[in-house]
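Internal ticket - ligand job 731, adenosine-5'-diphosphate:
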Amino acid sequence: MPTKKSSTEKATPKEETVTTTILPENGISSYFGEMVFGPRAQKQYLSAASQKAIEKAINEGLAVSREMSDGVAEGMKNWALDMGATHYTHWFQPLRGTTAEKHDSFFEPTGIDTGIEVFSGKSLTQQEPDASSFPNGGIRNTFEARGYSVWDPSSPAFIIEKANSRTLCIPTIFVSYTGEALDYKAPLLKTLAFVRKAATDVCKYFDEKVNDCSVSLGVEQEYFLVREDLFKMRPDLMYAGRTLIGHTPAKGQQLEDHYFGSIPTDVQAFMVDFEEKAHQLGIPLRTRHNEVAPGQFECAPQFESLNLAVDHNTLLMDVMEAVAQDHGLKVLLHEKPFKGINGSGKHNNWSLVTNTGVNLLSPGHTPAQNLQFLTFFINVIKAVHDHADLMRASIATAGNDHRLGANEAPPAIMSVFVGDTLEHVLNDFESNQTSSKGADNKGGAIQVPNIPEILIDNTDRNRTSPFAFTGNKFEFRAVGSSDNCASPMVVLNTIVADQLVKFKNKVDAKIKASKGVAKEEIIKQVLREELTSSKRILFGGNGYGDEWVKEAKKRGLNNVKNTAEALAFYMSPSSVDVFVKNGIYSHKELEARTEIRYESFNLRIQIEGRVLNELVQNFVIPAGIKYQKRLADNVQTLLNIGQSKSSVKAQMDIIAELSNHINKAYELNNQMTNERAKANKLADAHAKALLYNKKVKGLFDEIRESCDEIERLVDDADWVLPKYRELLSLS
Ligand code: ADP
Ligand code: MG
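stdout (structure tokens):
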């Protein structure tokens, strides 16, 4: 059995060009990235030429040649073997969610009792997993089941340890035999190339030295934890990821005493463990805290290059789930595991950085004078304005429907929050004036004795906004906690890049047409037009309030409350145009993807419907009847020994109430089952989704109400399902 080696006692590398980096002896830095074939390991195991090829692949998007990949594979294998790995796998992100892997051994027998460990450039770069069982939205028929996974050199290979064995995982894209993307990563990489180029072209107006831009992403991940033994007693949590019934506990989050509270000891032990695993894998986690709801927590890494950040977030979710098991815990990544208390999101902090190190969304001290900042700032606003419905579609899932517009989650209306100061800056800019309000960026100072002077961050927070500017980045807060970030990021990258291209075309045309006018003046003119045509998307008020719903309607902003309707915007003319024209998706790919998302919604609601049926029939009604029978026996006995009817009033009332709710739950549940059968007959995935949403899911709440009343009424001893109060208390 391979033993874990610390980075200081690694076996001697095979190549001659050995350069060892001395790692710090203490702290997280001493093991950070030790399970990753990153630059440090590459330096030890690869020739200078191979290292260069990978570097070029990352920075310039150049493919690593076949000959070169043999050398890389050899070095990667040697590293993996030294690290105790026996198998390797292509690691990809199919459209069903989570990750996919199929392990092959390095070992190859050469005789009856002899063998060698091999790994060729071909095995590294390309595999052909049988792809017929992955969602493809009708792109592939089963007779064309071939799919290819192809190495992504821009995301380093890593080693996963499970059940005392180690496997080398190679991040790949996943495409069909006919070239259509079947995963999240392939289109994401296309959008990254697109936005890099578009942003660089615009940067050249301001700085000729800029010849590349990168996109950064920092993902704040919210999650719930429950005890695994309790989890296993709740079929709804196990199969639907959320509770479908459950009476509100006496104490939920009303005291708001959980947020940033002291972390429960058992939970902290779990956090420390999964953070260690994550750090070994090079995931740069830095923050941990309690969230608003009881049992809810958050972790956040330092931002990274977007492709890597998406891979890391996906990997992190796997790591968290695996480590939780060792602690007798279960991580709930669902957007709304518990009714009546906060749901979980995944805040996507996004920005653009030049190769000269300038954050293009950093306003600096004088944003009003910072034309480069204003250019990128306004173009992002304009992009979100023009494609708000597509942004909404990008985060549409069955789980997120419960969160958006409910209980402290952003509303389903897309809007952009920029904060007071920048709103003034924009107003001044649009009207070509300078008011005192937008003039400086100093913020207010807080004067408290004995503490150093502190500045109030002038880009104040707005927790109610789905898309907020927070200081030097935009934060897409409406993303669901279980989502693959690639889905919203593909949309954001594409629409911003498309807008930057349009903007540049307008500016260039004007420069050509109006000789003699300064370039800056023309940029300002075009920016003013873009701002005027998009400022209705700006909203700084309370996104949770009813007034906003009314106001948004007046402004003509859509409020698309459910996935079944939201997904249709993927196929709207403007969405098709922006994706197809820019080579991100073909029409066929876009259709297939939308189809997959409808299907995923339908399957989720179908599963929820089935589980709810099981709960009603096998748990709730039997518990109600059991208690009712005891009450009835008790009434009978009391009357038999001569007690008056009035003395058994309470029992009689409860019996009647129980009958009422048992009948209701029974009837509604049958109705819901019939509606499912009807919806299942529909062949069209969109029509099916609409029906599932309205007729099947539409009955869930009513069924739940009766179930929750039954829970409230029956003897605790008769209620076998763990209750909210138990699920939500962790020590
Ligand atoms: P919060 O929003 O919870 O107060 P922060 O704003 O400090 O926390 O950071 C949230 C996330 O945003 C972190 O992952 C952080 O690394 C990331 N972040 C900070 N600056 C940028 C940036 N320029 N681009 C992308 N992400 C960033
Ligand atoms: Mg944040």
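Auto-summary: Confidence is low (pLDDT under 50) at residues 1-18, 439-443. The CA atoms of residues 331 and 362 lie 35 Å apart.
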